[in-house]
Amino acid sequence: MRQSQSFIPTLREVPADAEVKSHQLLLRAGFIRQSASGVYTFLPLGQRVLQKVEAIIREEMNRAGAIELLMPALQPAELWQQSGRWYSYGPELMRLKDRHERDFALGPTHEEMITVLVRDEVKTYKRLPLTLYQIQVKFRDEKRPRFGLLRGREFIMKDAYSFHTSQESLDETYKKMYEAYSNIFRRCGLNFRAVIADSGAIGGKDTHEFMVLSDIGEDTIAYSDASDYAANIEMAPVITTYEKSDEPLRDLEKVHTPGQKTIEQVASYLQVTPEKCIKSLLFKVDDRYVLVLVRGDHEANDVKVKNLFDASIVELATPEETKQVMNCEIGSLGPIGVGEAVTVVADHAVKAIVNGVCGANEEGYHYIGVNPERDFTVAQYADLRFIQEGDPSPDGKGTIRFARGIEVGHVFKLGTKYSEAMNAVYLDENGRSQTMIMGCYGIGVSRLVAAIAEQFADENGLVWPAAVAPFDVHLISVNAKNDEQRQLADEWYEKLGQAGLEVLYDDRPERAGVKFADSDLIGIPIRVTVGKRASEGIVEVKVRQTGETMEVSVNELIDTIRRLLQ
Ligand code: 9G3
Fold first, then answer.
1. Ligand 1 within 6 A of 119 CB?
2. Chain-centroid distance, C-alpha 279
3. Which of 167, 176, 355, 436 is 20 to 30 A from 300, comparing alpha carbons?
């Protein structure tokens, strides 16, 4: 492609509201433009990268035995009403009415649609297992779209769904998909980890997230420093056991703690350590209230609370709800004297507290000399806290460290959650009707483009790995007015193309400085510069990622480029 006839609107200045480098650079290098909050246009260079990423995904999906189809984005509300999700999802599910006032959803995912499709077409075990996938636009009305393509409201996903007659068959496909994902992310040059994840609302038990390590990642990964254990922090179980000190029990006593609200304030006011304090948090779990107790130096894990109650919605109670339910402010909550209306559960660490401190459920008062089981009882002790750095790794090997990650893939063993809801059954070899067992597997394709940009960008601009770069070679003629240089550049633009290389040719009548700056910004892996030594048939070759530069005779140019692209 000749740049003088292309559409690559690069920008000098850094866009104000772009906070992370991939977002800034994809805008500045003319790869994307925002058309609304969380809604983007892929300009020609961005579209070429997207196609390269999709090609890798297709290759690996097809190799894993998945079959591509394409479903509509427009989904009849009836599907979502049948699965119940029309009612359980809130404003995130984008809804609209057609001209006949019929309800539709703009698909955020396609479990219902694919399950109904397979239900209606597959009636016998002979047609299973079956794995279908699509690469398609998705809509999720995020409350806070951010970081450009990393969290958009319209984005491209590869979503695959598998249908089985047995758990073993599902396990086999899950393993194939897991390997396909590893191949995809490795071929994109990414530094990723597969982490044990929480299945959340999607149901099923096994589930893994594929995380690209990045400081701007929204997810925290808990990984072991002595094994390959890695889990999403929401999921990572805590195996710590707690010794109960043998100090003599003191009497329970209510003390005045004016204005002391946080654990730190109360602990320092009462001259105790946070480990002696009981932190009480009121959660709304579906339609009931639960008081969750954790030790003062720990954090309550809402996902573990949700899984304990198998709930679909878990949120911290608002200050108003807290006042109404507990008759006091959040800073004075405690487990002593809590009414029947509130279920009290506690993390295991709380049970080992002796002569502790907790809120008195009275403004400005706390209890000291608090002893669990003597002064209050709980419905259940469970693992309800977030794992912390330094905790023992759940696999018993080494200790936990934290890293931040961008979730680019997620694979689930769904079980029969959707096949039951949509009545997807088949006749088994004995002619008996059985419910299909399912798996589902997602990759954030447009998010992947941003994650690659984020991982490889440097201070001069984007840096694309060869496998996903918009072009193989950026050919630059330094001085378009110099006939000799321009002719040599024109000649090798043709020859490189004939050799099967994809070439972006900067033939614009711009100053060399502008061309080099744009070339660094765009990040094509190999730059060929036709300059002063054109008359000797010598050009300069530069590797974008390493900065390595060499003078090459045009006779060796194609071989040199091919070698460098490996
Ligand atoms: C919704 C809305 C947002 C959602 C979902 C449904 C996430 C929803 C989870 C999944 C699970 C898998 C198939 C590909 C891999 C991921 N956000 N999820 O189900 F209605 Cl508004 O999408 N789906």
1. no
2. 30
3. 355
